[in-house]
Amino acid sequence: MAATTKTLENVKANILSAHKSTTLAEKVDFYNSWAENYDQDMAVLEYRAPSLAANCVSSHFSGDRGAAVVLDVACGTGLVAKQMKKLGFGHFVGIDGSEAMLDSTRESGLYQDLKQCMLGEGQLPVQCGSFDVVVIVGALSDGQVPVGVVRQLCKCTKPGGYVCMTTRRNQDNVEYKEALERELKQMEADGLWTCVEVSEVEDWERAVSEHEDGYIPGVVYLYKRLQL
Description:
Blueprint: H1 8-18, H2 24-34, H3 38-44, H4 49-60, E1 69-73, H5 79-86, E2 91-96, H6 99-108, E3 111-116, E4 131-136, H7 149-156, E5 157-168, H8 174-189, E6 193-206, E7 215-225
Parallel strand pairs: 1-2, 1-4, 2-3, 4-5
Antiparallel strand pairs: 5-7, 6-7
Helix pairs in contact: 4-5
């Protein structure tokens, strides 16, 4: 019952403690311990990325949503799939590095398949070119997932399919965002995909760092994989 009384300060303290995690094992341990309260904490932060990403995909996807297969990378507790389900999508495969997060997600019954995988360590455990939509929401940020993972996301997508990605635009994530955008543009120059939409959002989520107040900004990227 105590979990229902969590304040923004409680959530900030918890997230800031994760920034002290330096090894991969420490990061996984943090997310395993966070799984039980993750959804509630995201509600406290007014975290909008899952709904913004889902709406971005929905506004451009013209195929059969019920039959479309969606790969949700760094799926966490399934916040993105919950939003996409409301918009008519119904077939989800999830990947996450935290087994506790996957256990929580499994209980939702939203996903047809769930796989444990540390992003950035080897290839994703799915078949290349087999997904109509690939989404990664929240994980592309400093200290989390390496920028190079986006090439794997593209490989997993069917020709003509969509890749939706998000990142933060706050001060702490400036260098990562710049590196990410260089990679996205290089992949476009390489003929792998084409940019469909870039949507910058001011009120992304409530700030948690000690030198930021109010809300921090974020951005949603949508790319379409080109025909082989």
